[in-house]
Amino acid sequence: MPTRTDAISLLKADHEKVRGLLSQLEKSTERGAAKRETLLAQIEMELTIHTTIEEEIFYPAYREAVSKKEDRKLYQEAIEEHHVVDMVLPELKQTDPASEVFSAKSKVLKELVEHHAEEEEKEMFKRARKAFETEELKELGERMQARKEELMEEMDGAAASRGKSRRGRQTDANGMDKQAARSGSRSSGREQTAHH
């Protein structure tokens, strides 16, 4: 039987993965626009899955388990920090990856995510280890892993259907890509629904 990962170890592993991707993005150059787009898509997927399992499973359990006002304050701050990332990410996606503005926005995203992850690891996770029994953390970890797999399947399915629609793209009389114009508004809506 495989060893069960507890909730905190799972979230820390997510943090490390996203930190690595954000570092690659920061080191990329304006000339590597295609690489930047690929990295940004990976970062968006990882962050969406991570924040969803935190907001649906870990944060509510944490809020129930803690009693001090200071502990509950950490929960509220974490929710707000997710919200700020949700505002920066769509802006970054709409920025030309071959521009200096993209470099600046990706640095801001990296700083936001790193600050949030560090605060969780140094404060919230330590408090959670005291508030939960070891077995409770393992059960939470199992639920979060299962939800993570569900979300990955959903996102892979959505990416596959987008890939099919790209092959059948049409351009209008001015040579503009009709599909791209339509999909811009859809993607920002997806980020909002991922958290609710």
Structure, described:
With 196 residues, this protein is mainly alpha-helical. The protein has one domain: Four Helix Bundle (Hemerythrin (Met), subunit A) (Up-down Bundle). It has helices at 7-27, 33-65, 69-93, 100-131, 134-167, 178-194. The longest helix has 34 residues, at 134-167. The radius of gyration is 19 Å and the shape is globular. Mean pLDDT is 85; it is low at 167-196.
Please give the structural blueprint.
Layout: H1 7-27, H2 33-65, H3 69-93, H4 100-131, H5 134-167, H6 178-194
Helix pairs in contact: 1-2, 1-4, 1-5, 2-3, 2-5, 3-4
Top-tier CATH class? Mainly Alpha
Second-tier CATH architecture: Up-down Bundle
What is the residue-averaged pLDDT? 85
Report, as a whole number of angstroms, the end-to-end distance.
34 Å
Topology order in helix (H) and strand (E) letters: HHHHHH
Low-pLDDT stretches are: 167-196
Largest sheet: none
Strand composition percent: under 5%
The CATH topology comes to Four Helix Bundle (Hemerythrin (Met), subunit A)
Helix content: over 70%
Total separate domains: 1
| Alpha-carbon Rg, integer | 19 Å
- Give me the number of helical elements: 6
**Helix vs. strand class:** mainly alpha
Record field, number of beta strands: 0
General shape = globular
Summarize this structure as a short list of keywords or feature phrases:
Four Helix Bundle (Hemerythrin (Met), subunit A); globular; disordered C terminus; 83% helix; 0% strand; 6 helices; 196 residues; mainly alpha; single chain
